[in-house]
Amino acid sequence: MAKLHVLGSGGPRPTMARFGSAHIVDVGGRKIMFDCGPAATYKMVQAGLHPLDIDYLFFTHHHFDHDVDYPCLLMTRWDESIGKENTLNVFGPNNTESITERLVGEDGAFAYDLNARQNHPLSKAMFELRGGTLPRPNMNVAAHDVGPGTVFTGNDFEVTAAPAEHVEPFHDSLAYRLDTEEGSIVFTGDTQPCEKVVDLARGADALVTMCGNFDSNLEKRGIAWGQTGTLGAAEVAAEAGVGEMFLVHVGPDLSSPEGRVKGIQEINEIYDGKVTMTDELQTYDWHAHVHASADVPADPEGRPHIHRH
Ligand SMILES: [Zn+2]
What we know:
The protein has eleven helices and 14 strands. With 309 residues, the chain is of the alpha/beta class.
């Protein structure tokens, strides 16, 4: 059974229960990471996973609540390795390559630490104790700036991106669809509801969607754009005909005991599939749904209307 590990299910404001975005999909034992927000590396270990499990990381965008633990993941994965790990392939919209270079490149912020750990006798001895053979190799990471379309095709999975609508033109945002033999799962990242994300998600088994607040609250506060609330998430899920929904990037209003119930009720008035409000450090099963072709609306006229702001 395919799994979804939710490491971060909140936004940029830290709360006791939630902070930032980070997810790992486990399909057939392969672990694929989407976003690397606050404390993702530590939460990964708390969830029983390890940085060396991760060979593929996809960034939806470069807001800090989605990427700030990237240096921690890079440094820990490198330090834990004994030179036998696979390349870490990192994909994301613009700035992914330059951020990587500015962190761990030759003149990067962490170059001094990489140099110290490769050359100080203590670090070298620790490396040998872990089973490594000197000299300590360089970090094995390949970063790729990518855009909409097929992003990566592997032996057992494919990742496709669509342009999300979030904070352009300051930086680009992508939604991703992961297709595997065990099913398809889509990550909206941060976006307002939009047709390109609906098209990407069409017929997917699981939709992991931003759901920051009740749309009524977003509208009251004048911030009902660039992000997705309950109604928008429900409309995207219904229009795309996805098998089930997982809510992430959940704000405090929705997170309260009453908010959870009311939020899911509001969503189920539009989308009649299963809705799970995720919590951090929880692992969820998801699976391929058998779609009757009538379940996936193909005719734009026949679809419910996307909630527009
Ligand atoms: Zn964002």
